[in-house]
Amino acid sequence: MYVKFDRDTCIGMFQCVAEWDGFERDENAGKAVLVDAEEEEEDIFVVEVPEDEEFEATFAARVCPVDAIEVYDDDGEQVV
To answer: Which keywords describe this protein according to UniProt (predicted)?
Structure first.
């Protein structure tokens, strides 16, 4: 499972940070940061989710008010 995060879309509500340690606050930018992610394209970041954190990562995506977070299974099918 992996997470794709659109940092440009993020509005800095930080609900994802409260739900999963894979996100951190960037108070200076007013946006979340996807920890240890690789930039796939401009402002789009991707990271693999450890198996024991899949529930939290999925919940973080579900609570994002602007749908800046997408979750995909190992086959590339979008879960959230």
So the answer is: Electron transport, Iron, Iron-sulfur, Metal-binding, Transport
| 37, 5 Cβ separation under 8 angstroms | yes
The answer to the question of residue 35 being in a domain is yes
Domain count, the chain: 1
- CA distances, 62 to each of 2, 15, 36 (Å): 14, 10, 21
Q: Would you say residue 24 lies in a domain? A: yes
How far apart CA 70 and CA 2 sit, in angstroms, is 8
Q: What residues make up the domain containing 39?
A: 2-72
Tens of pLDDT, residues 42-78? 999 999 999 999 999 999 999 999 999 999 999 999 9
Residue 79 Cα distances to 19, 25, 57, 71, angstroms: 17, 24, 11, 5
- Residues 6-28: pLDDT tens digits? 999 999 999 999 999 999 999 99
